[in-house]
Specification:
About 0% of the residues lie in helices and about 50% in strands. By secondary structure, it is mainly beta. The chain has one domain.
């Protein structure tokens, strides 16, 4: 799953990977779950007041 250059407002789940260069804005709590990897490209940021967590785990 490729989420490049977006304002991130929803959680994401993928069986293999998630790629992002987006922005988590204030007042959002975002969780990414991927089976293999989560890659944050240059430009990815979490604004003050935003929360971001990434997990590598089996997603079914």
């Amino acid at each position: 799953m490729d989420l490049a250059g977006q304002v991130i407002t929803t959680n994401a789940q993928a069986s293999d990977y998630i790629k992002t260069s987006g922005t988590v804005t204030a007042n959002y709590e975002i969780k990414y779950n991927a089976g293999d990897n989560v890659h944050m490209y240059p430009g990815f940021e979490v604004n003050l007041g935003g929360i971001y967590e990434a997990f590598i785990e089996d997603c079914q």
